[in-house]
Design goal:
seven-stranded mixed beta sheet; alpha/beta; four-stranded antiparallel beta sheet; Rossmann fold; about 270 residues
């Protein structure tokens, strides 16, 4: 079977990320307001590529913030490598949707990618070695001396990915990283990020609205229910080899199943109005 539905609360013994009965309300919400997330439990094994999809407002980006340590649960706990998350840490890196804001305009590609090792106190030689390794990995060899304004949108996003990886995180968080790019560039980078994940073995938690992208990339795809009190409605194991062929009938079957799930959730939002 290319697709099996699984229980969101189960997972491998050795996990990279774990949500334990998490509820989330933003500070300043009126007393008695419904939680954004409620009773959410999920385990993501080390080295897994896990994708979150769902209707707008279902709490996908909120989940990323909880793992990044820039937001904190109202109820329950979030763990990485068995440790409760208390704030941002180098073991967790974020790749943002924007291709403009995250890079330092006054630094070259080499300096941008080497920024993490520099902040960690690495020697200049190690900074350069690390930066060159990840620049090569994302396919930007030969562009080391360029500044961000000299790069295309897709190249800027490659630099952001390389800079995130060069900082040495165990977990990479990706919030719709290709949404701001044109369709052709997005398609190329979707293939590239799958290759990079396979080569690095990082744990990836990836948020997207693009169902095709979710099936192209994820080992598992979690479908968020509509908010408030959002949760993971369903998990799908995507049992397809990489690189994936979106013309494969099994691929199309999974896309249709996910689309149907999300459409039901989105329709429910309108029913509640």
């Amino acid at each position: 079977m290319a697709m099996t539905q699984t229980n969101p609360a189960t997972g491998a013994h050795s996990h990279a990320i774990r949500f334990d009965a998490v509820g989330m309300a933003y500070p300043g919400q009126a007393a008695g307001s419904a939680l954004i997330l409620a009773e959410l439990s999920l385990t993501i094994p080390r080295g897994e590529f896990f994708v979150l999809v769902g209707p707008s407002g279902s709490g996908k980006s909120t989940l990323l913030k909880l793992v990044a340590g820039t937001a904190f649960p109202t109820q329950g706990k979030v763990f990485t490598n068995e440790n409760s998350i208390t704030g941002p840490a180098r073991e967790r890196g974020m790749v943002f949707q924007s291709v403009e804001g995250p890079l330092f305009d006054w630094l070259t590609v080499l300096e941008n990618v080497g920024f993490g090792p520099r902040m960690a106190g690495a020697s200049k030689a190690l900074q350069a070695e690390t930066a060159h390794r990840y620049i090569d990995l994302v396919g930007l060899k030969g562009h080391e001396s360029k500044f961000p304004h000299e790069l295309s949108g897709g190249m800027k996003q490659r630099v952001q990915i390389a800079r995130t990886l060069a900082a040495g995180p165990d977990v990479v968080l990706m919030d719709e990283p290709f949404a701001a790019l044109d369709a052709l560039t997005r398609r190329v980078l979707q293939r590239e990020i799958a290759r990079i994940w396979q080569e690095t073995g990082k744990t990836v938690l990836y948020v997207t609205h693009d169902i095709r992208e979710a099936v192209l990339l994820g080992q598992r795809v979690g479908v968020m229910s509509r908010g408030p009190r959002a949760n993971i409605r369903q998990l799908y194991d995507i049992d397809l080899d990489y690189p994936r062929d979106d013309l494969d009938p099994r691929f199309a079957d999974i896309v249709r199943a996910l689309e149907a799930d999300i459409e039901r959730e989105a329709a429910g939002q309108w029913d509640d109005i």
